[in-house]
Amino acid sequence: MESTPSAGENISVLRKVRGIGQTKMAREMNISLSYLSKIETCQRPVTPPVAAAAAKALHVTTARIYGQPFSDPSEQSDRLNDLRTAVRRHTLPREDVPEPITLQEQLAKASRLREEARYLELLRILPKLLGEVTATAFTAGGDATAWGYVSDVYGCAYAVAHRLGQPDLADMIVSRQSWAAQQTWNPDAEAAAAWNEAGTYQSAGQYDDGLAIIERAISRYEQAPGEGREAAIMLGSLHLRGIVLASRHRDKNATADHLRGAKRHTETVSNDVILHNLTFGEGNTALYELAAHIELEKLDDAVTMSNPLMVEPPSALTPNRLGRLFIDVARARLGKNDIQGAEEALKKAFEVAPQMAEIHPMSREVLRVLFVLHQRARPDLLAMAKRSGLAE
User: Fold this and answer.
1) What integer pLDDT is reported at residue 375 of this predicted model?
2) CA distance 81 to 351
3) Looking at the DSSP assignment, which residues form a beta bridge with residue 100?
4) pTM strictly above 0.70
């Protein structure tokens, strides 16, 4: 029924190709032999830390473990090539400088599409927008605001490359975003670039290096002039990234430190707001705390925390954040063997952020496990699997 190999199957095939036995592989991944066996037979999902451990043992990327990119329709492939060209030509934009009002409208549209997790639509406008915003900055005489817009558009491009499973492109985009941010002399733009730079290490499973990027960015930002609401958003967002990295690194103390840091800044920013494509506030901080419980295998805490969030999700959060919430709830419920609850959470993810749910690695992993647990006859599961390319 499945049309693409699972992450567990990829681990099994790569392990056998390299002549590594299950016992040795489990030891190198620091997991039990039973756990590895269940992963390879799709009875347990391959979580990000597990994927990172397998990638290290097998000398491949985490994208290779997950089998990304999962699907490659012709338009998506063509648009990604257009984006690569635009990113490569970062000092040679082909586009003319647009009218200011036209540029502002396109910038707002890109931000909205990112928030709504509409990745293909965003990919359609990014190559031209990158050229236009860069051409504008080059003719603006070193205007910091103009370069800030360039940095923000690269932030949108990173979101697309990351979510569509293009790690090499994401790395290149982050370097361009850092370059643009340095032209602004704006600590906010540099912090946003560092947030995405740490994200490339997160995607690669190099959590300790990602933490080093975040901690350096926090230190630099705290030394820069500026305070109040904007500073709280940027510092709080950096702490949120730190929560993910620390929890996946199994560093409970660092996780707690970054969680305290984020919550401290919610005293200034309670309602969730977006700045430089970063979302911060009480609602999003709760989502990161929930994710940390899951990564640290505190599933009872995760389920208890998730129940009220499922009934009444934070109203200020955008679809890309809500989609991630529901995927994490599905993970927690599956971990507690709540099959029906996991399916319910996944259905909400598909409703609010379908493009994210179709391609997010953990959404797909939960779906696969539900199928293995004899849920193939459930029509809603089958529909989600077909949309994700997991069933024909």
Assistant:
1) 57
2) 29
3) none
4) yes
